[in-house]
Amino acid sequence: MAERSAASRRSLTAVLVLVLSFLYIPIAVLVALSFNEGGLPTVWTGISVKWYGALFSNRDILSAAFNTLIVALISTTIATVLGTLLALGIETRRRKGRALEALVFAPMIIPDIVLAIALLSFFSLLKFPMGLHTIILSHVVFNLAFVSAVVRAKLKSFDWSVTEASADLGASAVTTFRRVTLPLIAPAVIAGALLAFTLSVDEFIIAFFTSGAGRSSTTLPMQIFAMIRFGVTPEINALATLVMVVSVTALALSQRINKGIVAP
Amino acid sequence: MSTLLSVDHVTKRFGAVTAVDAVSLDVKENEFFALLGPSGSGKTTVLRMLAGFEIPEEGRILLDGKDISRVPPNRRPVNLMFQSYALFPHMTVAGNIAYGLEVEGLPRPEITSRVGEIMEITELAPFARRKPDQLSGGQRQRVALARALVKRPRLLLLDEPLGALDKKLRAAMQLELKRLQHDVGITFVIVTHDQEEALVMADRVAILQDGRLVQCGTPHEVYEHPANRFTANFIGVMNFFDENGRTVAIRPERLRVFAEGTERRIEGTVIATAYHGLDLQLHVRTDLSSEPFVVRLTAEAADRRPVAEGDTIPIGWNTSDTRIFTD
Amino acid sequence: MPAEVVRVIPQKTRSTVLMVPALAWLTALMVVPCGLILALAFFRRGIYGGIEYTFTLENFALLLDPLYAGIFLTSARIAGLATLIAVVVGYAAAYAIAAAPRNRQPILLFFAILPFWSNYLIRTYAWIVLLNREGLITQGLRLLGYEGEPPSMLYTEGAVIVGLVYNYLPFVILACYAPLSRLNPELAEASSDLGASAFTTFRRVILPMTIPGIAAGAVFVFVLSIGNFITPALLGGGRFQMIGNLVYAQFLTANDWPFGAALSMALIAIMLGLLTLQAMVAEKTAGETREQSDG
Ligand SMILES: Nc1ncnc2c1ncn2[C@@H]1O[C@H](COP(=O)(O)OP(=O)(O)O)[C@@H](O)[C@H]1O
Ligand SMILES: [Mg+2]
What we know:
The complex is a heterotrimer of chains A (about 260), B (about 325) and C (about 300).
Chain A: H1 6-34, H2 50-55, H3 59-92, H4 98-109, H5 112-125, H6 132-156, H7 161-168, H8 173-202, H9 205-210, H10 220-228, H11 234-258
Chain B: E1 3-14, E2 17-28, E3 32-36, H1 43-51, E4 58-63, E5 66-67, E6 78-81, H2 93-104, H3 108-121, H4 137-149, E7 155-159, H5 167-184, E8 187-192, H6 195-201, E9 204-209, E10 212-217, H7 219-224, H8 229-234, E11 239-243, E12 246-250, E13 256-257, E14 264-276, E15 279-285, E16 293-298, H9 299-304, E17 312-317, E18 323-325
Parallel strand pairs in B: 3-8, 3-9, 6-7, 7-8
Antiparallel strand pairs in B: 1-2, 1-4, 4-5, 9-10, 11-12, 12-18, 13-17, 14-15, 14-17, 15-16
Helix pairs in contact in B: 2-3, 2-4
Chain C: H1 11-40, E1 44-45, E2 51-52, H2 58-62, H3 66-99, H4 105-113, H5 120-131, H6 136-143, H7 157-182, H8 185-193, H9 198-226, H10 230-235, H11 243-252, H12 257-294
Antiparallel strand pairs in C: 1-2
Helix pairs in contact in C: 1-12, 3-7, 3-9, 5-7, 7-9, 8-9, 9-12, 11-12
């Protein structure tokens, strides 16, 4: 924007500082407390990683973490394949219907609670036993929508003439996909997968409703929810810090990859 | 020379638009054939049907006497050099060129030697390991050409191959392409909207207008005997005037200033002069037509009897040099 | 090579085949289940909590019961306040980012959005850490010499609103930044050149052109807030029921699925209504912008 007076520049900077402080102070406090030796929020007794150690001897947390990993890995894999194919299908159509757009957009905006109870009703009316597998089935729904959105964004600027060039040079449709299309959209596919993984690791409500009764299918967010209800503990602080590190790393990675080493 | 390619009453529609309308033409073995027409006349669509990316609704395409109109692109011994080049951005120059041979399943040593050979011919060897985005426009154009040529197709299709190059490079590449075609002995069908380019390069030219074939012939034939008013106007410069309900046309170089010894003679006023290097172009307003006549005068003639703007001069011609159009 | 006539699969068929697995998945696990709860909303609750398959509109009538209508109003008030605050703060932040030097904008935007990608529960929990009786804010006050009872900040409506604003602010910043960054700086210059004050320029030129971003951000915050169940549960301590909590209760404690389904449908209706409104705003602005560039 245009040049502005020193006063207005200062006030814009002040806005940024205030907003960023609002966004980061709560998180920073949480992270700091997770390293507080004494564990009390009131007194700082020195730096320690003992609360992280405690996490790794808590069997409930370990099993929840394991469940979350299973759910996230499997649902991300399925969603990446389906979402990428969907994106390719939509973007190679000459005309796009409004109904189709709405259908693939819906999983991203529908309130979690609605999808959660819809799936719960669906599985229970079918008498479908619930557990980790139903969480996986459910997570694929929104994960595939996000993967396809990321891949479609990439395909919008994709130069399809290279796939014709490949066919012209003698390649079959499968070879063209493997050697030309896929390498060129790979950054978007990987970014989409990382995004889906993050969403799945963090997702609470749908997992909560579709996990069935047993404790054996508790995921990490469900475990965190249960722990939070007991109040503030140094263990939750440590766990929260670890989960944030995982999500944010995956996201930063996804951003970086999709900026495109290969892309023009 | 025998016929390599026959396009037989081929029609292609996109919805309400008839992009190609009952076009028939033959291309001979080893010919340099040009498809010429203004933008939107259906040139690219013809080429895409030859390559296999579009299927004609009517008519047949015969290559070596066999109907290929429904054979998919990857099974045709035909290669296309894309207007946008369509180079694979994630592969090196050598990788781009080798691709077509790799998918054919040729043994590695043969691929290496053929790729090396074509890179020598097209002077790309120094850039073998570069990616397309590290090349200049002219170099990219050569990679696209080499990538198609290395397949040794029966027929090479080129869609506006020089369109993205600047004027000077274009002129050099026109001759270069012609030399290359001669050396490799492959039949070329080239698309262009530049009539001068078509006349310089091609053995024969087909002129398209609104999806229909208007005329097909050698550059000399289409220049000297245009089939209709459209062709006459599209190729080179032509003067038109109406006489006895007919349209009469004559080329600028057939008009003679001062009308010495010509059958027809009229008076006109010079309203503009323009230098074109070797010759001088005069715009002469006469009573015969609303548009001024374009008249060519050689530099030598201009030196002998100088002509200036505002002069009234006689111009003349012989009736054998005129063309009559009734459309 | 023999000239062979191979059956060419039309591009349209190929595209459709690629879409089938994903569309089948979405149909089976989103369209059908949502259709199911739409149907459920028209059935009666069984005596022992099951479903009695007789058609009724009772569940929708119950939405108008003062008790439930009250919860709708509370939810709408909380969501509305959260939306208002988030939009004002978010727009200001987006404006400040768009005004920063071009090369610094991506990194500022990245940091504004980053928190959005951490776990929602954890971001909400962070406010419990700050707001609880022995939390950091109380301690801060003590350091400043405050001696009385710790102020009750957690489990208030204010806490719920702060939590919602905190969680959705990054999205509003993103939504408002997009149109702001596309604004042609010459427009603002032209306006001030024509003698408009900075405030007039903002009100007459910048604000109208960035309304779609504001609308998108506002709809998002409002819809997700009114249907929220985590934030009221954790920061409201169950004292502030919002529609989300009500739905939760019908399915997991009260066992009145048909009424829960009707509540969900009401949520979806609110969402669709607001999205339509937003689309209209976007279209209108797009039309006006086009006229401006034509004229
Ligand atoms: N894929 C397509 N869909 C619809 N119309 C097309 C398509 N390809 C070409 N056309 C139309 O067919 C006509 C001929 O186009 P084209 O063959 O590209 O002409 P040229 O290459 O001579 O400029 C144009 O009117 C163009 O708009
Ligand atoms: Mg063309």
